[in-house]
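Sample 3 of the quickstart, ligand pyridoxal-5'-phosphate:
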Amino acid sequence: MKIETLAVHAANEPDPDTGAVAAPIHMSTTYLRAGDGSYPGGYVYGRSENPNRAALETALAQLEGGAGAAAFASGLAAIHAIFQALQPGDHAVVSQDIYHGTQAMLEKVMLRWGLDISFISFDDLNNVRAALHKDTRLVYLETPTNPMMKIIDLAEVITLAHNAGAKVVVDNTLATPVLQRPLGLGADISVHSSTKYFGGHSDVTGGAVIVKSTDEFFARIREEQSLAGAVPSPFDCWLIRRGLATLPLRVGAQAANALRIAEFLSAHPGVNCVHYPGLPDHPGHAIARKQMSPLTPGPSPASGRGGNASKFPGSLPLGAMLSFQVAAGEAAARKVASTTKLFTQATSLGSVESLIEHRASVAGESASTPRDLLRLSVGIEAAEDLIVDLDQALNSV
Ligand SMILES: *Cc1c(COP(=O)(O)O)cnc(C)c1O
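Result:
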């Protein structure tokens, strides 16, 4: 089945007991035990398992083409569980270009815990080749990267890592399985902040680990989930499962909008540089084309979606995140971010409403993000309105 169908139907059947078409929320933390000591419903205790969590995990595994999934209370809890499934002394090769919270968690928690981590640039894959050694168990990366939207060749990284006996983990939050399926390309684990596109409405925090095989490593991730207990609430699982139903629609509309905005910004005199992998002049465009699937265009160009501007032949809606550098510098960039009316100045990404952010002041002083850079998370509003909004903000500086 296609992802649009799975998004609606995976683990989402009418409730056999009541006929309810929308799934009931199972708040119970404990479950009835039968006279013989068994658990007739198959559930024992809320930290270990819950019907809403099980449905979410089944749906996520199907959307991402995995054999299993584990849902967590946040994206960082999911990422943490993967690293805790390693042993102290194990070596991991981690891209420098990752979510700043992941970097901080690895440095502040996992180094102290005894992991050996090489943080390296994946811009040149010879760095990856050189960093791998006999104790390397994991290679961890994001593509597209955030906020520079660089593209890393997944097939090449996977070959290098597997030749060295290491698993590959891809944080697939930005692309979502609608645009990129790392497990299908050979990666072992896909991890997500469900807070972003899965939830899709800026109203629920969550995370997910999805695996190609339910092997011993996944069993340890499961152990982390139930014994460390960073589990999502039944209501949060329900909200995220509900969000998944519209994921392909939302990402399709958002990416089509993002492409139009990227084209608009490319032609704007107040903008120095646009970072969007769907533009043909983006340095990672050819690899992005290879490993990300462009979406079917939206309903019709007349509705403001789909339709490529002829000025940019070959451009594709590869994602709904982009960043750009304001020609007049940092102060002007900050002014633009506080002058938009439809783009809300706030951190986070992936929701139906468009957000704008001066990334360098959020990611911290140590981050290498250019000071004149603004990051956009493009929502589902009409592209025309979003463009008018950006235009008036850019023209104000
Ligand atoms: C937000 C984010 C995370 C962390 O997820 P939380 O749900 O905030 O814990 C990890 N990776 C990426 C790419 C993110 O955008």
